[in-house]
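Quick one, T. Sequence first:
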Amino acid sequence: MGDGPYLVLTMLGVLGTGVVAGVFCAFSTFVMRGLAAVPPARGVAAMQAINVAAVRAPFMLVFLGSTVLCAVLTAVTCVVWPDEGAVASLVGGALYLCGSFGLTVVAHIPRNDRLARLEADSAEAAAYWPVYVRGWTRWNHVRALASAGAALAYLLALTG
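Structure tokens:
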């Protein structure tokens, strides 16, 4: 792969997508299970608070920063087409852009928006909560795997 800016961008790609994979993995393996184990009103209220907190700078810098980075890496890879790691880099970009960012847009944001409109202690929230948890978690497993796959692909791009 060589050195220089492309190497640094790829290393940042490994780091960013790996951190996002870890966040999503945590939600899939214990956060959502914990929220599902409490009464619906408490789970809904907690998830509503988490969804508000998630769109603040600390997570958004990593999540959206990784999205921009993956888009830049994909474009640069297509233009430069390095001798080693080009295919792995494109796979990493596709996994993250489609499987992490894309799924967030089409599978998680609509669910989160619907949950945000509900009163936590309402009958409607209680009825929607199990549906939300199942669907949100199922797609989050995919986001976690896609983000981890992107990190692995970028790592493979580094090793050529």
